[in-house]
Amino acid sequence: MRRAVLAVLLLAALTAPAMAATPRWAWLGVRIRDLSEQEMEDISKRFGMREGFGAVIVEVIKETPAAAAGLETGDLVVAFRDRPVVDTRSLQRAIASTTVGETVRLTVLRREEGRRPVQVKVGPMPDQVAAERVAAEYGFLVREPDGQPELGGARPAVTPSVAAVLPRSRAERAGVKVGDVLTEVNGRPVVTLDAVREALLAAGPDGPLPLVLRRDQERIVVTLEPTGSR
What we know:
Layout: E1 6-8, E2 26-27, E3 30-34, H1 37-47, E4 55-60, H2 65-69, E5 76-80, E6 83-84, H3 88-96, E7 103-110, E8 114-121, E9 123-124, H4 127-138, E10 140-143, E11 161-165, H5 170-174, E12 181-185, E13 188-189, H6 193-203, E14 209-215, E15 218-224
Antiparallel strand pairs: 1-3, 2-9, 3-4, 4-5, 5-6, 5-7, 7-8, 10-11, 12-13, 12-14, 14-15
């Protein structure tokens, strides 16, 4: 059975063209997943064979272009500008190719209503989300510090660390490991998640991206290669 994978339309991490520093990516503001094989079969039986594909919206984030356009949780996006959307990856690619501020036509399959068009004015990706996507372009994700407060005291200062490393990514090739603590990003000392985001936005996704990491008690310096170097 095909695994349903949640995907946030803040990434399209490996599908979009490289952008300049401080990128302005387009986004809808939804969380999506692929259809399972059972869902494909059920939808095809109910609505016809041509409907057994698409990207399911599992959450519409508040105060986003998707919310303003009236998209709903449970909507199945089946077309973007009248071109078929077969899965999450194809929808991500379509959004990545859209200009911020552009109004696009989506076709959704809504329970009890069938197909219906929805006009969405695509907005700019918020800085926080864009920074996460820049990290994903290099092949790693960053997590919030999770230090616990001392008794009667404030939460200790804990610098952000690497939460995931994508297979066959620039981060993996450079030797970045899950759990590595980020101490410098692109030459900037970072002690908070906001500082990491600012440094990533300033660097942009093209690279190279120098990082200084702490692994156990060891200081490690790596450089993530520029786009297209392999």
